[in-house]
Amino acid sequence: MERELFQKTYGLIGQSPEIQEIIDIIQQVAPTDITVLITGESGTGKEVAAKAIHAASRRCQKPMVTVNCGAIPEGLIESELFGHEKGAFTSANDMRKGFFEIADGGTIFLDEIGEMPLATQVKLLRVLENGEYTRVGSSAPRKSDVRLITATNKTLEYEVQQKRFRSDLYFRLRSVNVHLPALRDRKEDIPALVEFYVREISEKNKLHFAGFTDDAAGLLMEYRWPGNIRELKNALESMLVLEKGRRMNAENVRKYLREQMPVVGERNLPVFTNKSVEQAERELIYRALLDLKSNIIEMKEMIDDKFHTNGDGEHDKQVLTMNEMERRMIQGALERNKGNRRLAARELHISERTLYRKIHDFGLE
Ligand SMILES: Nc1ncnc2c1ncn2[C@@H]1O[C@H](COP(=O)(O)OP(=O)(O)OP(=O)(O)O)[C@@H](O)[C@H]1O
Ligand SMILES: [Mg+2]
After folding, report:
1. CATH 1.10.8.60 correct for 185-254
2. Mean pLDDT throughout 67-78?
3. Which of 52, 104, 275, 325 has a CA that sits 20 to 30 A from residue 142's CA?
């Protein structure tokens, strides 16, 4: 398929040599059954790439089952993937098909593969090697005809070094590695992405966008985009909708960016720019210090609280306080993210699974 048509069909927008090469690799591997490992920071398009591989394959009429390995509790992941027999464990009242069985003939997309427990990794390796697996609670091997695509924003080499990921599985998975570079490393894609999403958002919201001034367009190019394409798309959506399609200058745009850093190299103002970078860094440090200070005050208040209201031994008080702090952090992250556990987990730098467990432990459901 022509590159352009492929991009339109599968929504993989971009003009950079990097994205062009990715499309070439996807086109080459899609018709085969080769396992593909997709890597890249959050928001770079790993899921888009996985869907394109499936859609361009001979399996496209069969399902693609997406499994987020980080969101399933450790004890359940095996039965979710491979199914279980009736009575295999206490709550197994019925036989249940696993994702490998449901995806038969199609594709299984294991997202956040770096979160897969070691014990499950062994079983996955076995399916990859001879297509065989067993349901939990059964010893009868079953055959699976499934194409595997995996993705992670972790560095799996590092996970292997840390003995959290099996090296044999890692080598198996990365037979083809599609790496999606961060948006800041392929800035040529920004104009095409902006054009694509401006059109999509305008149509969806029935508004006419009056466009960006030159300095606003420059800012979109210079900004670091820590949240990559997801952040760009969300920022454009907020800008267009909330500003009702009004023409945007750099100052207007800056309000919608996640990081409030000034732009390095903003045209015509080299001296002022340097100064403002320093100033902004100072501001950032100052803000971090203020945050830290208020955290310390809060902690101090909590500890004081405990000491005055709790008559238990010294050691107990401290343990309680730590737990309480953790509970509050989790509650705060959940509130800030309006109950969205995925975002809350990201903010706390823990996996969704860990967050689920803690929510449960702290009775925050
Ligand atoms: N090349 C692209 N062209 C157009 N849209 C894209 C492209 N890449 C990503 N997007 C859009 O950006 C958003 C994030 O993409 P996606 O969910 O695939 O990222 P991801 O790498 O899986 O992120 P995470 O690691 O957080 O799961 C989606 O809305 C997707 O449609
Ligand atoms: Mg994803």
Report:
1. yes
2. 93
3. 52
Give the dihedral of Cα atoms 147, 151, 155, 156; nearest 10 deg. Answer: -30
Distance (angstroms) between ligand 1 centre and the Cα of 1 equals 22
pLDDT per residue over 85-115, tens digit each? 998 888 888 999 999 999 999 999 999 999 9
The pLDDT assigned to 268 comes to 35
**Nearest residue CA, atom 29 of ligand 1?**
230
Ligand nearest to the CA of 11: 1
Single-letter amino acid, residue 35: T
Distance 43 CA to ligand 1 centre (A): 5
- Which structure tokens are listed for 128? 């990859």
Report the alpha-carbon distance of residue 244 to residue 135 in Å, rounded.
54
In the chain, domain spans: 3-181, 185-254, 284-361
Q: pLDDT, tens digit, for every residue of 218-251? A: 999 999 999 999 999 999 999 999 999 999 999 9
Rounded to the nearest angstrom, the distance between the alpha carbon of 39 and the centre of ligand 1 is 12
CATH 3.40.50.300 for the 3-181 domain, yes or no: yes
Q: Which CATH architecture has domain 284-361?
A: Orthogonal Bundle (1.10)
What is the CB < 6 Å shell around ligand 1?
A: 11-14, 40, 42-48, 153, 193, 229-230, 233
